[in-house]
């Protein structure tokens, strides 16, 4: 995909994530902390998971995008094997469940509305990074992988990974709050 088109698409997707987060900010704490099942995450746990990743990847992306501007012309953005595998794992339409690494798992955390505020701040920072990206070679390997920092992703594939991962878990958060809105019937004793 051409770099200019990719960056425009990612920018639009991040703005959609911001809109979804603004909706979550209007909900009460009980809805945000509701877990559809005991093993699933609440909306706040979904966003806290994303915040933990954003703390790492926004910093990595900022470093990769800093430095001397190259004034790259629009170029085709490709995937390495690692980039494709990473992206395919987290894309929202991949229904396969995955377990996260321990330090990125927010299950059981005491979370409040500040989690949504932090998520919004990360999205704003990501928009700034996307705005700084057009003059950069998006095929350059420059973004360390969080769980194994000796590996690096290309800048373009890292941006796609981050946004797809966020879309996946924001959709999960939306399902959790939708489940919280479904009236629960009282258990019926059958004798």
Automatic annotation (TrEMBL):
It comes from the Bacteria. It holds the Pfam family DinB_2. Residues 18-173 form the DinB-like domain. SUPFAM superfamilies: DinB/YfiT-like putative metalloenzymes. This is DinB family protein. It comes from Hymenobacter aquaticus.
């Amino acid at each position: 995909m051409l770099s200019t088109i990719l960056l425009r698409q990612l920018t639009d997707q991040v703005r959609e994530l911001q809109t979804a987060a603004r909706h979550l900010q209007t909900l009460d704490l009980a809805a945000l902390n509701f877990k559809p099942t005991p093993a699933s995450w609440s909306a706040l746990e979904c966003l806290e998971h994303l915040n933990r990743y954003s703390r790492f990847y926004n910093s990595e992306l900022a470093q990769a995008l800093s430095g001397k501007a190259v004034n790259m012309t629009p170029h085709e953005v490709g995937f390495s094997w690692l980039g494709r595998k990473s992206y395919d794992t987290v894309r929202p339409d991949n229904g396969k469940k995955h377990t996260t690494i321990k330090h990125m798992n927010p299950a059981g955390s005491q979370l409040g509305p500040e989690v949504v505020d932090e998520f919004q701040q990360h999205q704003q920072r990501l928009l700034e990074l996307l705005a700084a990206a057009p003059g950069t070679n998006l095929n350059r390997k420059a973004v360390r992988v969080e769980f194994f920092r000796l590996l690096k992703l290309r800048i373009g594939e890292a941006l796609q990974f981050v946004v797809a991962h966020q879309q996946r878990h924001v959709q999960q958060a939306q399902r959790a709050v939708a489940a919280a809105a479904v009236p629960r019937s009282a258990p019926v004793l059958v004798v």
